[in-house]
Specification:
11 strands, elongated, alpha/beta
């Protein structure tokens, strides 16, 4: 029996490795495909900071960062995964929030209140084409000027891989991991198109957040578990909870 990971590539490989280390068999079906969008830094813009809500935004602009002035700016990131990607990309001052976009907004506001960040300098938001929250609007209401640059898009996969359809039919999958509302919707559409929706929704659906879990519940899934916080360690805890009783692996 295997856990199905729907996370986009290449992050699905990291997740698969972590699950295998915990004793799970893993199948992968990335439901969103990463596509970078052409990026050009506005040399006349005097940014005071950068905000990033996904490591994909940094992956998209990586070829443009060599000796870039952007690397000298403080960067606010959602979660440690995105923060680590920023450090790997060469950013020297990286501040990570412990939650989603709302927590990142609060972190920026706290920095401004403590005079560590000037509201008079615009903030560069490196963003995806589809945003779950209007972070720029939230900060704008608090007096910031936010310049949003779309650096990537995630394209839904039209179908599941053939071996995944076969695994559902053969009852070889014991749970499905979901990392975003968009990928969850893509999974549901692909399962429906391939005729395995009933089999898929009968399984435990483990979600990175309550918002993602709502997508699965609305589709008719009855075994839906949400992570206590929007990070992978919490998601693995939710997976262990969903599969209890189970003698192994050790989560």
């Amino acid at each position: 029996m295997a856990v199905l990971v729907t996370r986009p590539h290449p992050d699905d490989e990291t997740t698969a490795k972590a699950l295998r280390a915990r004793g799970f068999d893993v199948l992968r079906a990335p439901m969103l495909r990463f596509e970078p969008v052409p990026f050009q830094d506005d040399a006349d813009a005097n940014y005071g900071a950068i905000i990033v809500t996904s490591a994909n935004a940094l992956r998209a602009i990586a070829p443009h960062l060599a000796d870039s002035r952007l690397l000298k700016l403080p960067l606010f990131a959602v979660g440690e995964n995105t923060a680590a990607a920023a450090r790997d990309a060469g950013f020297g001052e990286v501040i990570a929030s412990k939650g989603g976009a709302g927590a990142l907004r609060d972190l920026v506001l706290a920095r401004a209140k403590s005079k560590q960040l000037k509201k008079t300098s615009p903030i560069l938001y490196l963003a995806g084409a589809d945003l779950a929250r209007d972070l720029a609007g939230d900060l704008g209401e608090s007096g910031f000027t936010v310049v949003t640059q779309t650096t990537y898009r995630m394209v839904p996969a039209p179908s599941l891989p053939r071996d995944i359809y076969d695994a559902f039919v053969a009852h070889e999958i014991e749970a499905v991991l979901h990392y975003s509302r968009r990928s969850a919707r893509a999974f549901l559409e692909a399962a429906r198109a391939g005729g395995v929706e009933i089999s898929a929704l009968a399984l435990p659906q483990c979600c990175i957040s309550a918002a993602v879990a709502a997508v699965l519940r609305d589709a008719g899934a009855t075994q839906v578990t949400a992570a206590a916080s929007p990070d992978e360690n919490a998601l693995f805890v939710a997976l262990g909870r969903a599969l209890q009783p189970r003698s192994s692996p050790n989560l």
